[in-house]
């Protein structure tokens, strides 16, 4: 076997991880055919992996489609408990939600997109935007843009502006808007904190939200031992 060849076990683990990564909040259920095509596997190989993952509780099946299984929830809760930034962010997020009257979310990077690990909102608000931990956000979301600017070092004036100002804005066709800022540990970005609300409410108080958000992100970064780069 050449030095570049991967042991079969490692290849199996990588394939299984890639297969689980196919499921997103936009597409939580996939057919066997879709799994095979997107993972680049034959139908027989896809079926073998799906069967093994079902037996491990990592996948479940319903009406001919597959979705992430209950074991994923257990593992996710353990993983979240081990995130120092997730534990420490609570008071900062609570104060930020109180000050802005909006939903505040904390996301980490899973290698391809931001994943929400904590969410805080104002339960007394008539209209609430609920974002559950575990939600995988789009790469072009405000949080995604923050991670890409600092992790990937994206070129161009837009990414450079995020690196300079430590904040960015993004909205969706559904009328939802977010302002996000990076959270650092040492000199590395470890999370993105964002204020999320309707486009109208966010734009109406954008300057106040931006000031409160960037201050909270800096304070949390300082508690994590960061002197921001």
CATH class of the largest domain: Alpha Beta
Radius of gyration from the alpha-carbon trace, in angstroms: 20 Å
Number of domains: 2
State the separation between the terminal residues, measured CA to CA. 44 Å
Helix count, DSSP H or I runs of 4 or more residues: 10
* CATH topology value of the largest domain: Beta-Lactamase
Run of helices and strands: HEHHEEHHHEEHHEEEHH
Q: Which spans have pLDDT < 50 for at least 5 consecutive residues?
A: none
Any idea what the CATH superfamily of the largest domain is called? GAF domain
What coarse outline follows from CA principal-axis ratios?
A: globular
Estimate what percentage of residues fall within beta strands. 15-25%
Structural class: alpha+beta
Helix proportion: 40-55%
The CATH architecture of the largest domain can be given as: 2-Layer Sandwich
The largest sheet, given as strand count, sense and whether it forms a barrel, is: 5 strands, antiparallel
Q: How many beta-strand segments?
A: 8
Structural summary, described in words:
With 229 residues, the chain is an alpha+beta fold. Helices cover 46% and strands 21% of the residues. The chain has two domains: 8-69, Winged helix-like DNA-binding domain superfamily/Winged helix DNA-binding domain (Arc Repressor Mutant, subunit A, Orthogonal Bundle); 82-223, GAF domain (Beta-Lactamase, 2-Layer Sandwich). The protein is built from ten helices and eight strands. The strands form two sheets. It has a five-stranded antiparallel sheet, sandwiched between helices. A three-stranded antiparallel sheet has the order 1-3-2. A hairpin with a 2-residue loop joins strand 2 (59-62) and strand 3. The mean pLDDT is 87.
